[in-house]
Amino acid sequence: MFLFLEYNTVGFVRSLDADIQDHWIKAIAELSGMTPRKTRTTIEAAAGQYQLRNLFSTAPWDGPVQYIVLPALAKLSVTDVKECELENAVAQALGLAEPQVRARLRRAHGRTLLKNALDREFSRAYESNPSFLARIDEDDDSVSEPGGSGTVLRSFIAERGEATSSLATGIDAPQAKVGDSLNGGWVISKLLGEGGFGTVCEVTHRTTGTKAVAKLPRGDALVALEESVTRLKQEAEHLSQVAIEGVVKTRGNFEDPRFGWFLLLEHAGVSFAEQFRGHQLRPEHALALIIKCATIVDALHHSNKVHGDISPHNFCVDTNWNVTLIDLGIAMNLNAAEHREGTRVGTSAAHGGHRVYSAPEVLRGGLVTTKTDIYSLALVFAALLTGEYDKHERLFEATSGPFGGALGRALDINSRNRFYSCSEFIAALRFSSF
């Protein structure tokens, strides 16, 4: 069974950016024997949690579909592949071992297209299947030669007209490692992860032993060091404008001679994704946690901000079960005169967040409102109930449980049909629990 077809839902296909969605529609149409137009109409009319293999039951899902699927996979970003767990699908399509795919993608930037991250492998696919080569070449954004068109970096520099300096490309930006010292008396004790615009580290103060979190600027082929610093400063500005219990607090910012400007945050504990992955919480425990989360998000909305990246990775819990919302890196201000009416999402929000939990309008680069956060909050609750943190299919199973009515409304593809506020969503969940 080809993983991307087995796993994905109607809602996932709808959430894709328009150009990527077109490739998937064509792949499904070719498999099912329908026209692309009929395929699109069928998907638009179906419930979001419906599996593709059930909706298009006449399609030969078990057949050798590599060369139909590869044009769709080619247009996905490395982040798409990782967060939707499509490494196995990519491996099957290209005739590789899954660990080999994972190793290659670890070295690629998240916004690199898959066809560029695995240029040699796609070249071999071109050579072994001329019809596939012709299909890929129909796309203006694809390479035109079997050997590929060179690196993403060259294209990036050509588009920007920038010199190949380390500051412009970020290639020579310092890589943080455990034991590195930072200005202010801090020492990196643990690497926590890497976001779209920053490297996140647990740090310990050399004198007091106090633990905190440092967000260091990063730079690579697609994110200039300058841009990374700008984004971190924007996050610091958002945090300085809110004084909400449950939103992470800053400990200031520092200028380090090696890493440059960095942001220091209070240590909020362990993320939901790390703490609860693989564990189905009792409904009453999951409800208690999501009420805490919704209360924090509701207060953020009343401060005229939308988070834009609500996920189990951005809620933390400490040893006393206090919940903290972190990472306002792609947060946005809502117009005071048009509160809850929304704002146009930028490139960072469309591509920098945790896509599994992103509302359809975020993925499409559309209008973002407070209801966008409510959609993501509903998926966080579904993760707590199911113990599944990465797959749409499992998350949407929660809509068939006792909280199905409330979750179904919060996860409506049309944001206008969702709850007006987080508190309204929680009231519906409370009612469902009786």
How much of the sequence lies in strands comes to: 5-15%
Class derived from helix and strand content: alpha+beta
CATH topology of the largest domain: Transferase(Phosphotransferase), domain 1
**Helix content bin:** 40-55%
Total helical elements:
23
Compute the average pLDDT: 76
Number of domains: 3
Strand order of the largest sheet: 1-2-3-4-6-5
CATH H-level homologous superfamily name of the largest domain: Transferase(Phosphotransferase) domain 1
CATH architecture of the largest domain: Orthogonal Bundle
Low-pLDDT parts are: 60-65, 130-172, 336-342, 344-352
CATH top level of the largest domain is Mainly Alpha
Number of strands: 13
Major beta sheet, specifics? 6 strands, antiparallel
Question: Overview of this structure, please?
Answer:
- The protein folds into 3 domains: 3-150, no CATH class; 181-266, Phosphorylase Kinase, domain 1 (2-Layer Sandwich), CATH 3.30.200.20; 270-432, Transferase(Phosphotransferase) domain 1 (Transferase(Phosphotransferase), domain 1), CATH 1.10.510.10.
- The chain has 23 helices and 13 strands.
- It has helices at residues 3-7, 10-15, 18-32, 36-45, 52-55, 66-74, 78-83, 87-94, 98-106, 114-117, 119-128, 130-137, 152-160, 166-169, 225-240, 272-276, 283-302, 347-352, 360-363, 370-386, 392-395, 404-410, 422-432, and strands spanning 181-182, 186-194, 198-205, 211-217, 250-256, 260-266, 270-271, 305-306, 315-317, 323-325, 332-333, 343-344, 367-368.
- Helix 6 packs across helix 8 (87-94), helix 17 packs antiparallel against helix 20 (370-386) and helix 22 (404-410) runs antiparallel to helix 23 (422-432).
- The protein is globular.
- Residues 60-65, 130-172, 336-342 and 344-352 have low confidence and may be disordered.
